[in-house]
Amino acid sequence: IENIQFNPKGDLKDAEGNPYFYWPDGSVRNLAYPDPLAQVTQRDYVYETDLRKADLYNKGSYSLNSFAIPIDAGLEFNVSPRVTLRMGMSLHYTFTDNIDNLSGNKNINVNDGLNYGGKVGNDIFTFSYATLHLDLFSDAKTKMVERLFAMVDNFDYTLLDDEDNDGVPDGIDNCPGTPKGVEVDSVGCPYDDDGDGVPNYMDKQLNTPPGAIVDANGVEITDEQVAEVLDADAMKHSEVALYRMMYLGNTGKRVSKGIPAKFKFLDTDKDGYLSFEEVLSAIDAFFDYQSSLTVEDLYELNDFFFSQ
Question: In the chain, at which end, N or C, are there fewer CB atoms within 10 A of the end residue's CB?
Fold first, then answer.
């Protein structure tokens, strides 16, 4: 709802100040009806007369203030992540019949007694417009994520939080709680170059031979040491879990589910996994019309990404 203040103007005179005369046949003439010398003339459409002061209609005073209901429709175009162009049309239904100074049977010309009024009812007017919206304050990463995931149903933005500040959002972080400053892979797990199940930042033997059994510090242990541990009357649960992990051949590396053929070209670092950045790049390319993927492919890509 809106408030409108208006001052009605009319085109009642020509450029020389001579009045227009509206005849019953619908013509506009230079002399009053029914003068035989009157000639047809054309309006200049210059609204020079304040209708509140014109002595043509016996209307009395009325309010120049009214409420109205605006109805707006338009199209928005993303020029860039921070610039939006909107083109639209707005229709305004007012609660007054006096904006054009015509109010049906009340519009009687006191000079000739003729009714020049229009249809009785509230006035309605429209206008078209174009606006340019510039966002100066939103965080750049937030704007990018909002735009790229705009087509993903029920996307949970809490997944983008990063509790351990390792650069990998919590929603895809397979190793939460990574110590500050530790280098991680695309799913947030510390690197383990020798594949012994102990991350580099904790590994005191960084070049353990493949398949070797190691202790909690990543140092290789002998079969005799393993036997001693297994023969002990009591064994810590953590040591059992560590041994089982080593014995079953779990190197601490992720087991790939296999990237679908249609998405393999997105794996730019060729590590066999689709990282968060690689998925964002794919969606960004789609919105920039630089991708062969369809909307359905994006939904499938989203599902596969979170299933890794």
Answer: N
Q: Convert the pLDDT of each residue in 144-183 to its tens digit.
A: 777 666 656 555 666 677 888 888 888 788 898 899 889 9
For 188, the token pair is 């947030």
> What is the rounded distance in angstroms from the CA atom of residue 288 to the CA atom of residue 223?
58
User: Facing residues of 26 across strands?
Assistant: none
Residue 27 has a CB neighbour count (10 Å cut-off) of 13
Map 195-245 to HEC letters.
CCCCCCCCCCCCCCCCCCCECCCCCECCHHHHHHHHHCCCCCHHHHHHHHH
Comparing CA positions, the residue from 122, 87, 128 lying closest to residue 102 is 122
- The contacts of residue 116 (CB under 8 Å, 6+ apart) are 22, 102, 107, 109
Element spanning 78, H or E: strand 65-80
Contact 121, 97 (CB under 8 A): yes
C-alpha span between 142 and 177 (Å, rounded)? 23
Helix (H, G, I), strand (E, B) or coil at 160: helix
- Vertex 198: Cα angle to 192 and 201 (nearest 5): 70
Distances (CA, A) of 161 to 191, 209, 273, 293: 22, 37, 21, 27
Q: What is the pTM of this model?
A: 0.38
At a CB cut-off of 8 Å and minimum separation 6, what does 134 contact? Answer: 82, 83
